[in-house]
Design the sequence.
């Protein structure tokens, strides 16, 4: 027995878009080609909405796209746009903070700052510093070494209480001879009930300039001997 086809299936094969309207696939391909050929750097909000409305206008009425797909596209675009704006805002914030840090660090030029580990720069003026004592000590000794590691000055301080002990080195050796300008190192040693220790020592150094590390971006202070120290390592700021 012969049968006759009826219903939507019979007309599906005859459905076609007008020649002047592009399908979603064609429009998407045109957008991708424009980007690849350098005609457009990225799909902006206007281009996306144009593509989105084109999809709505030119979808197959007999087989429309699921609404979930449209919602998903909108959500993805909104998230991408928000992320892009956030990235731009973060870049601006980083630049602003960098400028602010440089401005703040420049205020240290011409002042003295605390340098840890006993590093000292003698430039004709007395080197000031302090020793941090975590407990009372029965004796405290300070020793000054030149850049060659030679001992040039020894100072017996005696018993001291817990806290900070301030000192000043006048640039002379044990015989009263004035030493050359340059880098020195001051070490502290202490004893308590016969037990020796090396308390931390901080010296004050004159800041000559400020610069930024090109690799790490870290802000550094430069001293008279040409040495540098990260601004994050500064523990104390003195007067001129």
Sequence:
């Amino acid at each position: 027995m012969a049968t006759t086809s009826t219903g939507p299936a019979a007309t599906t094969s005859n459905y076609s878009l007008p020649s002047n309207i592009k399908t979603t696939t064609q429009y998407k391909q045109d957008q991708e080609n424009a980007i690849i050929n350098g005609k457009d750097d990225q799909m902006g909000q206007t281009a996306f909405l144009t593509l989105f409305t084109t999809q709505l206008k030119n979808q197959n009425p007999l087989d429309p796209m699921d609404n979930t797909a449209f919602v998903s596209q909108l959500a993805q675009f909104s998230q991408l746009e928000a992320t892009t704006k956030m990235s731009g805002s973060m870049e601006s914030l980083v630049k602003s903070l960098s400028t602010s840090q440089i401005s703040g660090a420049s205020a240290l030029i011409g002042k003295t700052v605390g340098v840890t580990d006993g590093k000292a720069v003698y430039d004709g003026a007395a080197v000031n510093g302090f020793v941090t004592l975590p407990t009372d000590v029965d004796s405290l000794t300070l020793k000054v070494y030149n850049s060659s590691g030679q001992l040039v000055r020894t100072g017996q301080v005696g018993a001291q209480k817990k806290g900070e002990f301030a000192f000043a080195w006048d640039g002379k050796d044990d015989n009263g001879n004035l030493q050359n300008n340059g880098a020195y190192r001051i070490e502290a040693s202490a004893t308590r009930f016969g037990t020796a220790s090396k308390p931390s020592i901080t010296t004050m150094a004159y800041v000559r300039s400020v610069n930024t590390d090109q690799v790490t971006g870290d802000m550094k202070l430069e001293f008279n001997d040409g040495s540098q120290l990260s601004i994050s390592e500064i523990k104390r700021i003195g007067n001129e």
About this structure: Residues 1-13 have pLDDT under 50 and may be disordered. Residues 27 and 50 are 10 Å apart (CA to CA). The first helix runs from residue 9 to 12. The longest strand covers residues 201-212.
